[in-house]
Amino acid sequence: MAELLSECALLRATVGRQGLELDDTPSSLEALDQLPPRWRDDPEELPWLGNDAGLYLGTVIVRTVRGAAWHVWPGGHPVVRLASGREVNVVEAGLDWAVHGSPELSQVYAEAAEA
C-alpha cells in the first residue's frame, strides 16, 4: 500500500517542470512550500494535485518519522498514524496547501515529527 500511496505522479510531474525533483525528504517539503503556486491556474487539476501533495507529505512522514505508518479509514481515506496514536489527515493538509498555501507542508511535517 505504501508504494501505491507514494507514487504522486501528478505532483512529481508538475513540480518537475519547475525544476524540482522530489526525493521523499523533509527538505523537499520545504522546497515545495517555496514554489510559485502555478497549479492554482487550473481548477480541474487543483484538487488532484492537492491530493497528491497530501500523499507525498504522508510518504515523507512515514519514511522519516519513527513509528509513523499509513492507516486507511473504513471509507478508504488514507491517514498517517503516529506512534503516539495521533492521526494526521495528510490529504486534507495537502488540499489546504494547494488551494490556500497554508498550512505549509513543512509545518505539518514538523508537527508530526515532534509528536
TrEMBL record:
Name of the featured protein: Uncharacterized protein
InterPro entries in UniProt: DUF6278 (IPR046245)
